[in-house]
Every structure is written in structure tokens, then in C-alpha cells.
Amino acid sequence: MPKIKGTKAVLEVLKEQGVKVIFGIPGGVMIPLYDALYDEPALKHVLMRHEQAAAMAAEGYARRSGTVGVCFATSGPGATNLVTGLANAMMDSIPIVAVTGQVRTTAIGRDSFQEADVTGITIPVTKNNRLVKRPEDLIPTLREAFYVARTGRPGPCLVDMPMDVSTAEVEWIAPGGNGDYDLEGYAPPSDGDPELIEQAAKLIALSRRPILYLGGGVVSAGASPEARALARKCNLYVVNTLIGKGAYPETDPQSLGMPGMHGTTYASYGIQHSDLIIAIGARFDDRVTGDLSTFAPEAKIIHIDIDPAEIGKNRAADVGIVGDAKRVLAALVEIVPERARGEWEDHLDEYRAEHPLWIPACEGVYPQYVIDQIFQLTNGDAVVTTEVGQHQMWAAQLYRAKEPRQFLSSGGLGAMGYGFPAAIGAQMASPEAVVFDIAGDGSIQMNIQELATAVYEKLPVKVAILNNGYLGMVRQWQELLFDRRYSGVELSGNPDFAAVAKAYGAEGRTITTRDEVRPALEWSLGITDRPVFLDFHTVAEECVFPMIPAGKSFRDIMEKHPASKGGD
Amino acid sequence: MKHTIAALVNNRPGVLAKVSGLFARRGYNIDSLAVGPTIDAAHDGDEQKYSRMTIVVDDEGDPRIMDQIEKQLGKLVDVVHISDHTRADVVRRELAMIKIDCPPDKRPEVVAICQAFRAQIDDIGRETVIIQVTGAPEKVDGMVQVVGATYPIRELVRTGRVVLARGERGT
Fold it and tell me: Which residues of A lie inside 8 Å of B (Cβ-Cβ)?
């Protein structure tokens, strides 16, 4: 192939890697790349209104579609705005590739206009990043970024591209050929050690109170069918992390839902009192374990993860298996002996019946009721994204995911502002799906400008704002742990969200009574050509329960408000 | 306890920042870090391709820290190979240059000390001498102590520790 422009080469590599949609914003040094994009009908560009949202939309797209998400940003502020999105992708292991413009190589290091040391800044928040200094490195570096992002433990990769590099003529290199990238030090694990898998099977056979603990790794690996097969063959009860929602259907009787700080009492109880935790693609995060020294003291641990550094990082493993969850589970399911349902499972059923989640039946717009209504009306089939805070935990509890890639939330980083751009990305990946962003009045304002993007792209994303006039989760902690000293949590300057939506050309409605909840949701489901803001004015000082305060144990669980007299 | 890790890494821009940044953000303490281009026949003889890092870290009494350091380092795309040589049969070396105050009449005494340590004198100024000592870290410590006890040290520079495995075994 003859020499081609670097910008053209970038787009050729993107197409070769299967990219269909790019989320981005141009800027000075990105004009040549956007000029090349002008002639490229196979690549859909979604113009975002903030680069953070571009990264998060790419994540929503990646998570929903199971492919690598792509975002573009210009040098300097464009690239630095990506940082929160990249950090989120790093924490939740989401494969995205960020292509950033950089000033000319001759201008680097001179504090040039819109210059920032982006590869320096993003080292801790990327799986790998590269500054492309020579035109001949451009093609291999981009390919390497896609490969690294999607293999092993997925994560974000960034390629920083100086303007003179992207505009130079480069020799086209065939994929996989001589001169392509070289990753000698990078060997993603694949099959697990068969001996260890045998040991795991033995531990399962010997256990009396096993719990299957599924994390986001099961979703990334596409190992949900294998995880379900294991649960069925051994009659295992299942708990899942926030990122692992849908890995096992939460609507199934064997699912206990999410354990931990705001998990269901029965999931936390089950994992705490188990004698064997089979952890797959989960990392014993502090929001799950609370105080590690008192967490599940009688449990032996089987830990399956593609990242060797996760094994033994927080909780020592009795059997640690490094490998691809899909392959390891397939091997395990084959050799593990069938296990009959026992007293433990009966006991968990009883316990669950005695400790249900609470959905208020009384007057007033209760956030739990709104989410339950969304669940009922969508038959549990919607794609749900969330922001971060109380609404997120209620959504995690009450929107029971049936399938992987159905519930997209910012877990590790806990980044407010994630849900709306992620919903835009998810809707781009699944145009036919009903997509709900369950939001808070604080969080939605962190990326509210993306209304313009969603309106322009005619995306019927439904945003359910559970508006309590507070930064609710912080208020809850202040109420319960800081003697009701509400400091910096009152969102008294809130706009009329429905009016804001309408100003952008979207739909909006305000809901102030319980009776209006269901009709408003039904109305929103009928809108198919633009986003909708549903502003639910909810009971202001409702708290999320159950709650295990940070650093505490299951025995410290608050199932309901300490001041409440029981019952409802 | 102090551990000595050797890492073979790609000789590319930004790799040192990636390695040192990892130690900083995960809260591991680096005692010393030495790095330079290398040749490694077991991987690829190309002289420009790799650097070898020798990193000395303190595990602060928690053995899990070393496990994490090795695994987290191993995850860096540009790290080709790592091993912990703390208890292994390796040649460990460090180099120090010590500039001391030394009037001309004291020079013979300094030369005698240098001979005892197999150190050498690299520079003689009007009132100063630069001594260079190479050896196992304990020897370098000893030299610094002995010289410092008698002659005021003006300036001191030490390389980090470097190691190479003995015999056929790779580092």
C-alpha cells in the first residue's frame, strides 16, 4: 500500500479494529484528524459537550456492546478533561481507547498553547499509554492500544498524537505483519492451572455453606453462561458485586443480590456466614467486605481472576486461580461433582423472607417506589445506568438485572456524572433498547450539558431524577454519623429540571405525588425520538438501608433507621 | 526487610515514570533504583531494546507487600521480566564517590585506607580527595563510616544497588 496521511491511517486502524462510533470533541491540533473523519461515513462521530462525558459515553458503549469504546479529545484541556473518565474505566476494567491530540513534537516541553503532559498525567489512570513520537510508530501504537485495552483485565489505553506525527505521511503496515507492535512483556492469562481447578472442585464438594460471589470480571469474560451452569450444577446461592450485576439473573431464587455496605441483608448475611466463597472476577472491595479482619471468618476462599495481583490482595485465597473466567469456569463445571441443595440454602431462603428490602407503600414519592415502578414497567429488561449516591444504591437493590451488560454504574471510582453519558453510549450501542439513567439531583448536574448531545442524536434516554434537594448520600452519613450536622449538602439552587430539558429540546415532566409516578413513566416510555427528564420530587430525608458503615462488619448492620420503631 | 528486585523493561520513554509512579501510588518505599540500557541474550540481543532496573524496596515486615509489588510491576505492559533476588546467589554491587577534606600531609594515610578497602583515589585537589569505592553494599557502608570518622566528608554520591545472578541462571 502506498504512503497515506497519518490521520487517514488512524481511521483505517479504527475501522480495522471494528470501531463504529467515536465520542469526542475536536480542538486545534485535532482539526486534521477531524478533516479526515469528514470523508469517513463508516465511522459515526458523536459530538459530546464535555470530554469527561466523551470518555464515559465510550465506556457506556463499551460495556453495553462488549467491544472497545473510543473517544477523541484535543490537547491540553481536552485531554485533561478525560482524566475522570479514564480513572473510572481503570477502576471498573472497561476497555476504551482514548486518542488525544498533542502539540507538535518540536513544541513539546515549551509550555506551548494547549500543551499538557497527558501521558504523564494519565499513567495512574490508564492500563497503558503512549506518546507517539515518530510517524512510523503511529499504526502499531494504535493497534497495540486496542489489543491491550480488550485483552487480559480490560482497561483504558491512551494514545497521544502530536500534530506533526498525525499529519505526516506513513507507510501502511498490514495488521499482524512485520513492523506491527511488539508486546514481549504482556501475556494475558488464559487457561487456569488444572490442578488448582481440581482443588477448587474438591473444596466445593466438601463445603456445607458455599456462596458464589460474582464480579465484573464474569461480565467482561463473557462467562455468565458458565457461572450460571456452575450455580445450577452445585445448587449454589449467588451474590454479585455492583459491576457484576446480571452475571447471574438477580430475579432467580438462587440470587441473593448484592452484599456489602448497601447490599441486601441476606446477601451480606450469606457471604459473611459461608464456609466457602467462590469469588470470580471480583476483588473483595472494601464496600463488599467492610472490616477485612472480621469478614467471613469461617470461609475458605477460591479466587478466580485474570489479574494475578487481585489474588491475595485483600483477602488471602486458599485456592487462587489465575485465568480467563470463561475457560476456568468451563473446566470447573465439567469436573465438579453435583452438589445437592442443603440446609444452608433452606436457611438462606428463610432468612431472606425475614429480612426483605423495604419498598414504602405509604403516600409521598419514595425513591424506592419509583425504581420499583421502573422495574415493573420495563419488566426488568431495560438497560439501566446510574450516577453515584443514594439513587445508585436503591437502583442496585431494586432494579434486579437479568442479563450481563444491562446495569452500568460507576463502581470503583464512584464518579457522579457517569450515568447520563454512559446512557448515551449504551443507547448508541443498543438503539432499540429502553435505556434509563437513574440519577440524583446532584449527579445529573455534573454532566447535564449532554442533553444537547442526546437531543441532537435523537436518543430516547430516560433520566429519572430522584430529586431530594440534597447530596443525599453525604446527607445520610451526616444524619446518621455526624449528628445531623448538614454541611455543604443542600442543593438549594436546583433548577426546574423539566424546564431545562425542554430548553434543550428534550421532554420533561415534574412528579410530585405518588399517583403521578406510574403515568409519568408510561408517558416517557412512549417517547422514542428524544431524551426525557423525569424530575421526581422525592421524600427529602429518606436513607438507604440496609447500611453497614464504612470499616464495620456485618454485625453492625443497620437494617432500618435507628430512630424508627420497626414496621412501616 | 529489604528486597532486591531486578526488572527487565523496554527501553522506551516513560517507562521509568511508570515504574516509579507505581511504587509511589501504591505506597511502597523505594530505597534505591538503578537503571541503564542492557543486553539480555535470553530475550533478544538487541542493545537498544531493554533497560535493566535494580530496585531495592523495604517490605516493612509485611510479606504480602512483595507479592503485590511483583504482581503489580508484572502488569505494566513495558515490564518484560521481574525477579526477586533477595535470597538468591547473586553478585551485588554498589559504587560510591566520597569527597573528603584532606590536606596534602594526610594523603598517605588516605591511600592506606583505600588500599584496605580496595578503593581508589579518583581526584586529588588542593585540600580535597575523591575516593571511589565499589563493592557489596556493606563494604561501601563500611568505607563511608571509616573515612567519615577521620575526615570531614564534603560530598557523597552513591549509585543504587545493582545485581546480576551468578552462573547460568538469569537475573
Answer: 119-120, 123-124, 127-131, 133, 148, 153, 183-186, 307-309, 312-313
CA distance A6 to chain B (A): 21
Indicate if A409 and A507 belong to the same structural domain: yes
Q: Which residue has the cell 455468565?
A: A224
Count CA atoms closer than 13 A to A529's CA, side-chain side.
1
> Under 8 Å CB-to-CB from A239, ≥6 apart: which residues?
A211, A212, A213, A214, A255, A256, A257, A258, A259, A263, A267, A270, A271
Residue of chain B with shortest Cα separation from A185: B80
Residues A348 and A374 in one domain: no
Report the complex ipTM.
0.90
* Residues of chain B contacting A, Cβ within 8 Å: 9-10, 13-14, 17-18, 21, 25, 43-44, 64, 67-68, 71-72, 74-81
pTM of the model as a whole: 0.95
Asked if A185 and B14 come within 8 Å (Cβ–Cβ), the reply is: no
**CA distance to partner chain B, nearest, from residue A310 (Å):** 9
> Residue A528 falls within a domain, yes or no?
yes
**Domain membership of residue A286 as a residue range:** 194-354
Indicate whether A350 and A375 sit together in one domain: no
Q: pLDDT-derived band of residue A29, with 50, 70 and 90 as boundaries?
A: very high
Structural domains in chain B plus CATH codes: 2-84 (3.30.70.260), 90-163 (3.30.70.1150)
Q: For residues A165 and A203, state if they share a domain.
A: no
CA angle at residue A265 from A262 to A266, to 5 degrees? Answer: 130
**In this complex, which of A119, A133, A308 lies closest to B71 when CB atoms are compared?**
A308
Give per-residue pLDDT as tens, A57-81.
Answer: 999 999 999 999 999 999 999 999 9
Judge whether residue A523 has pLDDT over 90: yes
Distance (Å) from the alpha carbon of A186 to chain B's nearest alpha carbon: 5
A135 assigned to some structural domain: yes
Sheet holding B29-38, edge to edge: B29-38, B50-58, B2-10, B79-84
CA–CA min distance B152, chain A (Å): 41
Q: Which of the listed residues A171, A205, A229 is the one where a domain comes to its end?
A: A171
Size of interface A-B (CB pairs under 8 A): 46
Check whether residue A378 and residue A522 sit in a common domain: yes
Q: What share of chain B is helix, strand, coil (3-state, %, to 5)?
A: 30, 40, 30
**Same domain membership, residue A538 and residue A422:** yes
CATH number of the domain to which A443 belongs:
3.40.50.970
| Weakest mean pLDDT among A41-50, A526-535, A555-564 | A555-564
Instruction: Check residue A568 and give its pLDDT.
Output: 42
Note the maximum CA span of chain A.
Answer: 78
Provide the domain count of chain A.
Answer: 3
What DSSP line would sit under A332-374, residue for residue?
HHHHSPP----HHHHHHHHHHHHSPPP---SSS--HHHHHHHH
Rounded to a whole number of angstroms, the distance from the CA of A114 to the nearest CA of chain B is 21
Residues A163 and A242 in one domain: no
| Residue A433: C-alpha distances to residues A58, A382, A422 (Å) | 17, 7, 14
Residue A159 lies inside a defined structural domain of this protein: yes
Contact check, Cβ <8 Å, B10/A185: yes
Best mutation site among A184, A186, A303 for testing chain B: the one with the most B CBs within 10 Å?
Answer: A184
